[in-house]
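Email to the structure team, subject: Protein-arginine rhamnosyltransferase model.

Hi all, the expression group asked for a predicted structure before they design truncation constructs. Nothing fancy, just the C-alpha cells so they can compare against earlier work. One-line instruction: predict Protein-arginine rhamnosyltransferase, return C-alpha cells.
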Amino acid sequence: MKTTWDIFCTVVDNYGDIGVTWRLARQLAGEHDLAVRLWVDDLQAFVRLCPEADSQAERQRRQGVEVRHWPATWPGAEPAQVVVGAFACQLPQAYVEAMGKQATPPLWLNLDYLSAEDWVDGCHGLPSPQANGLRKFFFFPGFTDKTGGLLREAALLPRCQAFRQAPDERAKFLAGLGVHPAAGARLISLFAYENPQLGNWLDVLAKGAHPSHLLVPQGRILGDLGHWLGEADLPVGALHRRGALTVQVLPFVSQDDYDRLLWSCDFNAVRGEDSFVRAQWAGVPMLWHIYIQEENAHWEKLEAFLTLYRHGLSAAAGQALTDLWRAWNMDRPMGQAWQALQPHWDELREHARQWQATQAARPDLATRLVQFYRNSL
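Reply from the structure team: attached below.
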C-alpha cells in the first residue's frame, strides 16, 4: 500500500502558495510513488496553474494527484499518514480531531516559508508540542544542508539543459507565445508586484545601446507598465516599442511553460517564493521582488539571501547586484542601479550557473520530506 499524504493549501492573495504545494504534490506522487491529496480552498487559482483542471469539481485527479476542494464546511475525510500544512494554514478542527483518534497518529508537518535567515537552520525539524499529543514538526525549506532544501524535480535540470541545447525548441516555444525577438536582443522576463520604480528602469532600457525585449506575463505589474506606456488597457499580445526596448504582454502560463520562459530569457525578474526558486534553477542573472510585509520585515529576508547568494562574487559585482535588488525592493533609483550592473554581466551569468550547481548538489525538498517521515517511523 502506498503511504498517504495530505497537503493543505490556503490561497491568500497570490499564486506562490498554490504554486509551491502543487509542484510538491506532483513530485511526491510521481517520483516517490505516494498517494497524495492536495486540499485547496480556491480552485480558481489552481486552474490558473493547471489549465486542464475543473474549478467546480469537489474531487478530481490531475497529474497523479487527487485534488480536493477545501470548503468552508469540512466535508470529512480520513486523515493521511503524513499531513502537511503549508505556510502555517489552519487545518480544519474536525480533521485535527480525527488525526488524534488514529491508531497510529499521523506525522504532522508545518511547511514554512522559504528564508535564508540564520535562525532557520536551528529551527528546521524542531517539534511543536501539541496538547492532544499529535506529532507536529516545523519544516523549513532553505539553501543550506541544515534545512529542508528547495523544490526540484529530478528531471528539471536535465530538461533545462536539453531545452537550451536545442535552439529550435526555444524559438518554437517563444513563437507559440507570439514572441519573435530581434536578433541579438536581450530577453528579459518580468513577473512582479506593483512597483513605482518600474518606469525608471524602463526609461534606461529604452535609451540603452543594447536592444531589450521585455516579456510580461499577466499579473499585478501591468498597472505600472500601462502607466509608463500611457495605455489604460494592456491585453495579452500587446506589443509596444520605445527606443531600444520592446515590451510584450504574455498570458498567465502553466507552471511548465513558465519554466520554459525562464530558460528562454537572459535575465529574469521574479516575485514571491515559487518563481524565485524557479529562477534560481534557470541559472541566469535574476532580480527578486520579495513579498512585502508590515514594518518592512521582508527586508531582513532580502538581506539574508543577498549575503548568502553574493558569496563568490567579486566585491564590485556583489555590490552592484545588492544595489539593484535594494533599489527594486526599497523604492530607490532603479535605472542607475541597472546601469551599474552592466559591466559585471558575464560574471553574474557564471555566478548564476555556479549557484544553480551548488544548490542542485543538495537533496531536494520532496526527498527530504520523505526521508524525514521515514526517520520518524
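The chain has a mean pLDDT of 95. DSSP finds 15 helices and 13 strands in the chain. Ping us if the truncation boundaries need rechecking.
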